[in-house]
Amino acid sequence: MSTEPTSIKGSVTPPTSIDSENSGVGASSQTKGTTGKRKATPQRFDQETCRKGLAQMIVIDELPFKFVESEGFKKFMFVACSRFHIPSRTTMIRDVYQLYLDERVKIKQLLRSSCSRVCLTTDTWTSLQRVNYLCITAHFIDNDWKLNKKILNFCPISSHKGEYIGMLFTVTVDNANSNDVAIGYLRKKFNPRGGLVQNGKYLRMRCMAHIVNLIVVEGLKEMNKSVERVRGAVRYVRQSPARLQKFKECVVVEKIECKKTLCLDVCTRWNSTYLMLDTAQNFERAFERFEEQDTNFRAELERGEGWPSLDDWNNVINLRDFLEHFYEFTLRISGTSYVTSNNFLDELSEIDILLRDAQLNSNVAFNVMAIKMKEKYDKYWGGIDKINLLMFVACVLDPRQKLKYLEFVLSEMSSSEKACEMMQKLKESLYELFDEYKPPLHSTCSQSSVPTHVSLGESQQKMKRRIQALYKKRELEICGEDKTSELDKYLAEANEGFVEDFDILLWWKVNSPRFPTLSKMARDLLAIPVSTVASESSLTPKIVQALVCTQDWIRKSSSQEDIKKIEERIQELDKIENDIFICFILILIFNQK
């Protein structure tokens, strides 16, 4: 398929049934006059500019390509701008792909202009069409100390096996065994180029959200009976509009003010199980009243996992409160519009405290669940040798934490001997990394050398810098060179206070002149995402790549903190869908009469 823009061969003729009195002759903009009223300022019509804008709308709003051939859109465009020749869906596909190529050039230029390293997250999965996909996302802090996230590629791969993945990306963050092969390949490939820190010693960064998922899933196995019984009750009510309507009447009678709608979970996604329990526990009394009105309710559940007893509801409420911490935790660490690596230790200690407290629970089933989860926790985070040390270094480079705070938190999480051992390894890694970032000795010497004469054509500014260099040299001769490194000076300074609105990137931007080497480390380490977030789609490979990447590049960044709001909106839409279905049934009954 050609990627160059083509002439408008696939355009369609505007409909003639619309009153031409309102049809536009071109684009116009609104401006305010001196009287405060808006006046239309006509602009020159440009077919290619309009087509590009249409392509951007298709990508940003995730519209199907056939949208341009819909009757409603044709009528609207005829009224808005009758001169615009609407392209066909085939032409639109070519325009979108050309937009992708143009935006890709801009992304390459942006990465070339950035002085920091790039951290990558990856994810692979198989679509409904059985096509294996790989998504590669770059995370970096630009020259203005702004955190950036850009999808570099979204492409099909022949297999999920490590040897195939290694040919396509530079680093991975999830916990699949196949990634060991990929990491080995990458070290071998990139070490000769000198592009890896510490020869690739810290190349692999395990996805924090994936580990949390493994921990929670392990725990849910122990509380499965109570969850299954509540799931069965929710499934029964949602199986027909009539049952759902009767259940809503029970909610009204019981005066339950919760506005949420019952939702059924996906068993393989624990966060959806949490959302199901979070909603269902509000309607315990409504379920009891529903049983009185529906004689088949209890009988049907008894044939399955059983009727949810009072103990089951108590387990569900306790489990819901417990899982809420992990749900909120996952939202926080999945953010891409803010720094997450500096909060690694705080998040880790929160999970550790939660699991230790849960093991003291008087409920036997809850106690066993917490023990199983702690075992899974220890498998991945039980020792410093199991955690990428760059995560701890990123915490040190948070001016609110530094080494003292880390030492305190580690001593709270483990024995004093183990904490001392971990701190020793951390300090060694910290200074090794700092030495690698320090500029070569010959470059500093060349900067401090002073010319013995001045050419006649030298500017006044150069003369000023020469005098300053002479003064610096004289100071070194009298007082001697300051042996205290940037890192030691930074660690010796008092910590910043723990305030919620603290902007760590702004702090390093302001203090980078005082800590030029450390600020380079901070730009690289604070860009590391602790989790990888997947992007999913099911179109053809070439257009999927163009759509996913281009949408990420031209759409404004949105915070991952909005995920919870999105989940709530999905529940609202689910409620509307149920209401529409009930209306549809009523219309059918009415028509039959």
Automatic annotation (TrEMBL):
Q: Which stretches make up the HAT C-terminal dimerisation domain?
A: 486-554
Entry keywords, A to Z:
DNA-binding
Q: Which domain of life is it from?
A: Eukaryota
What Gene Ontology terms describe what this protein does at the molecular function level? DNA binding; protein dimerization activity
Where does the record place Polar residues bias? 1-34
The family database entries (Pfam families) matched by this protein are listed as: Dimer_Tnp_hAT, hAT-like_RNase-H
InterPro entries, per the entry: hAT-like_transposase_RNase-H (IPR025525), HATC_C_dom (IPR008906), RNaseH-like_sf (IPR012337), ZnF_BED_domain_contain (IPR052035)
Q: What ranges does the record give for the region Disordered, renumbered to this chain?
A: 1-45
Name all hAT-like transposase RNase-H fold domain ranges: 334-437
Name recorded for this polypeptide:
HAT C-terminal dimerisation domain-containing protein
